């Protein structure tokens, strides 16, 4: 199903107006999303170029680095532009490169929140997301310090990552949820039902790994459409997501200013219903 009109902004929590083409900062770290980014000055330039180009939604996480990605964002962009929304996440331990261990211990979550506030140099985190449910700890316990932080004004809105509908509803019994960040792209639509649920409920849906342009079976179709718009296959993949649902917020990441500009230009591509349908099959 596609949206009939193209709206390039979305109100997060019904309040914060966000440009739907945002920026995901995960790549601005070392190999395996671990350690410091190789070229820090270039990384700062990419972040500054994103904001200068109109991006007002940046996604990061305590686990990126870990911790180093949040500090980099503050270093590059603080004091922040008034309309800039920075989303972060907590709930993953990082023993080493490419190692991700869910930790829903309330003390760890509390430490994540306080650390993110400090590193990002903010009094309030606009959007704090639980990176993963920890199968060893009831989510009600995990989210207790998050609810406390919301009450204290340290977190404005709360989101979830890589969850099913049942988990969203379970979390909503503890506190309001405004967004879901799941793997979703032209080639991987395993969370289609979750996307439809968020659309129906007015929650933001933030696909991670949005640039994947699909299986080889789509290659010919996507290249023909890309040729028509003088675009890259990645730009067509992003344009398809923008048309798929108005509540989708895109966070493509890159270490290159040129690639950043290419990604943002996807917002100018208006696929026809026929083209959308061809790619959706």
From TrEMBL:
Record carries keyword Protein transport = no
Asked whether the UniProt record includes Ribosomal protein among its keywords, one would answer no
* Pfam families to which the protein is assigned, alphabetical: Aldo_ket_red (PF00248)
The NADP-dependent oxidoreductase domain is annotated at: 20-280
One molecular function GO term is: oxidoreductase activity
Q: Which InterPro entries match?
A: AKR, Aldo-Keto_reductase, NAD(P)_OxRdtase_dom_sf, NADP_OxRdtase_dom
Q: Which CDD domains match?
A: AKR_AKR13B1
Q: Which domain of life is it from?
A: Bacteria
Instruction: Give the signal peptide range.
Output: none
Q: Which NCBIfam families match?
A: PRK10376.1
Know the name of this protein? Aldo/keto reductase
């Amino acid at each position: 199903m596609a949206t009939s009109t193209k709206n390039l902004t979305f109100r997060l929590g019904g309040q914060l107006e966000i440009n739907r083409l945002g920026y995901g900062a995960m790549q601005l770290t070392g190999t395996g999303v671990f350690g410091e980014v190789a070229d820090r000055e270039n990384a700062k330039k990419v972040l500054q170029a994103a904001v200068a180009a109109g991006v007002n939604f940046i996604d990061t996480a305590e686990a990126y680095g870990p911790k180093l990605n949040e500090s980099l964002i503050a270093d590059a962009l603080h004091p922040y532009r008034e309309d800039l929304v920075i989303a972060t996440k907590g709930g993953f331990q990082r023993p080493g490169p490419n190692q991700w261990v869910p930790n829903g211990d309330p003390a760890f979550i509390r430490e994540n929140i306080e650390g993110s506030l400090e590193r990002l140099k903010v009094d309030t985190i606009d959007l704090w997301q639980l990176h993963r449910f920890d199968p060893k700890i009831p989510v009600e316990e995990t989210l207790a310090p998050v609810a406390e932080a919301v009450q204290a004004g340290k977190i404005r809105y709360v989101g979830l990552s890589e969850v099913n509908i049942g988990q969203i509803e379970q979390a909503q019994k503890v506190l309001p949820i405004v967004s879901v960040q799941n793997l979703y792209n032209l080639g991987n639509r395993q969370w289609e039902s979750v996307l439809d649920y968020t659309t129906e409920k007015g929650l933001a849906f933030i696909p991670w790994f949005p640039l994947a342009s699909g299986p080889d079976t789509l290659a010919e179709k996507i290249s023909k459409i890309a040729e028509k718009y003088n675009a890259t296959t990645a730009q067509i993949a992003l344009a398809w997501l923008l048309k798929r649902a108005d509540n989708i917020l895109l966070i493509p990441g890159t270490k290159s200013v040129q690639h950043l500009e290419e990604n943002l230009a996807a917002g100018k591509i208006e696929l026809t219903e026929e083209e959308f349908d061809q790619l959706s099959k």
